[in-house]
Amino acid sequence: MCKPTLFDLMKMPRGGRLFLATCLGSLFVLVLYFQSITKPGKLLGSRNAPTIHQAGLELLAAHKSLQGRRELLEQACLSHTRKRRVLSPEDLKHLIVDDMHGLIYCYVPKVACTNWKRVLMVLTSDGRYTDPLAIPANEAHVAGNLRTLSEFSVTEINQRLRSYLKFIFVREPFERLVSAYRNKFTRRYNTAFHKRYGTKIIRRHRPNAKPEALEKGDDVTFPEFVQYLVDPRTQREEPFNEHWERVHSLCHPCLIHYDVVGKYETLEPDAQAVLRLAGVEGTLQFPTSGKTTRTDGHMAGRYFKHISPFYQKKLFNLYRMDFMLFNYSTPEYLRT
């Protein structure tokens, strides 16, 4: 089919030309909006932007560690991010919205996200839930229980990014990675992960694998998991699973201006600060963890002892941006 010429367009009825012009104009506005949403200082919670949480942000200034993290993150973004890109709805699927309290939370698996989802279910439930720990863990992860920013229109996304309190919780990258491995590949009940990822990892990275291992995928070793992560074919075939995806790829901290950067290592005081900023500190408490076998640096070091310096270096390069953006030191146990 031939492309329409200017002459053909001029012959179009006046109503048709107006409709076409309206469509083109709407598209142009949409493109301009998404370009502007990626510019700090305009739509992403800049100091000049109006906010319904101004009093809360003044309180935040009193929390020097949280304020310092924000500033370090901004500096790291300026130093290590060369290109800016347009945010898509896919980029916003990890950002949970609480319209009742003006909150946006980017959830990161293996960083207390189950308890944060429980808290947000209480805050958005209109009294249906009152105790976060009374909500089963699997229910907290049911799609549809909480709204994500990707579900809103462009105008609504813009308004919320500009005016809501935005927060994120992060964790030392390799401790989070070991925690994900332990949870998804060493627990017998995670058969879905064994079938989905374990069988592929064993087939690709275990020479002379036994038929039972190829069928069940339930005995992936940590060195095999590391080989899978650094294998260039892995990300060419599909994105990383959210449990081991890098935080900067899940939450885009150099494109979205987070007001609070909490850390797993200081979870309880940081969570309390967020609840205070949201104005709900007196109505509920963040659930404390009862785990006795939490993955810490010592445990991560034991797992990395079996990883060669070659693969340690490749893995560190893969997660380097998370180390830099969130001010985590290179682990002492690395032999790179």
Can you give a write-up of this model?
With 336 residues, the chain is mainly alpha-helical. It has one domain. It contains 16 helices and 5 strands. It has a 5-stranded mixed beta sheet with strand order 3-1-2-4-5, sandwiched between helices. A hairpin with a 4-residue loop joins strand 1 and strand 2. Helix 8 packs across helix 15 (297-304) and helix 9 crosses helix 11. It starts with 5 loop residues before the first helix and ends in an 11-residue tail after the last helix. It is an enzyme of class 2 (transferase). InterPro entries: Carb_sulfotrans_8-10, Sulfotransferase. Pfam families: Sulfotransfer_2.
Task: Please tag this protein with its features.
disordered N terminus; 336 residues; mainly alpha; transmembrane helix; glycoprotein; membrane; Sulfotransferase; carbohydrate metabolism
Number of helices: 16
Largest sheet: 5 strands, mixed
Strand order of the largest sheet: 3-1-2-4-5
Report the helical percentage.
40-55%
**Number of beta strands:** 5
Give the overall shape, derived from the CA principal axes. globular
When the domains are counted, the total is: 1
Mean pLDDT: 85
Global Rg: 23 Å
